[in-house]
Amino acid sequence: DQQVKQNSPSLSVQEGRISILNCDYTNSMFDYFLWYKKYPAEGPTFLISISSIKDKNEDGRFTVFLNKSAKHLSLHIVPSQPGDSAVYFCAASVSNYQLIWGAGTKLIIKP
Amino acid sequence: GAGVSQTPSNKVTEKGKYVELRCDPISGHTALYWYRQSLGQGPEFLIYFQGTGAADDSGLPNDRFFAVRPEGSVSTLKIQRTERGDSAVYLCASSPDKNYGYTFGSGTRLTVV
Q1: Sequential pLDDT tens for chain A (111 residues)
Q2: How much helix, strand and coil, in percent to the nearest 5, is found in chain B?
Q3: Residue B85 neighbours by CB under 8 Å, 6+ apart
Q4: Residues of chain A with C-beta less than 8 angstroms from the C-beta of B100
Q5: How far apart are CA A105 and CA A79, in angstroms?
Q6: From chain B, which residues contact A within 8 Å (Cβ)?
Q7: Is the peptide bond before B43 cis (omega within 30 degrees of 0)?
Q8: Residue B38 to residue A16: CA distance in whole angstroms
């Protein structure tokens, strides 16, 4: 049973536009959510996170929104740049070290 | 070193053989994690070390898998009697303490033929 789901395997967005990556979860005990970015042949790198007590967290071009009632979070990238092309993973935790990950969404930024 | 180093980057082994995967964490990081990522999936937790001890090994799939961190720095993931289903990328991460601020290595791609 997948507790963290990323239903879009891939997403293609025009450079300069907004990229919206979505993630759904089933476990209401999750209290911390993170987004990681992964380039080929590299390990995932931490991008942005949000605690369950908040509904929005912003860092530069990246904003994460959390809707606890819908058990849904999203990552917005504005404006999208070619270097943003990567696989994005959503992850969640009920403890402070073990992460449960989604399957990832491949983001392609078109010039 | 500056980052988390994993060796080898690629390993091909025959079914039934024994393999060791090495992880060199960032100097001073007390927490170390092993994850496994199969094709088309997100990483899956295997084991967490705090210092020299395995604080949580609940993610190890069976007793063919074992990991050590004898001096609280380098860790080795050991897989006995490898099976084709063990083929995956094995990721190591470290952090200053148990928190979410992991730094991942580039992983070891294990292929069992």
Answers
A1: 789 999 999 999 999 999 999 999 999 999 999 999 999 989 999 999 999 999 999 999 999 999 999 999 999 999 999 999 999 999 999 876 789 999 999 999 999
A2: 5, 50, 50
A3: B112
A4: 32, 34, 46, 49, 93, 96-97, 99
A5: 18
A6: 4, 31, 33, 40-45, 48, 56, 59, 91, 93, 98-107
A7: no
A8: 33
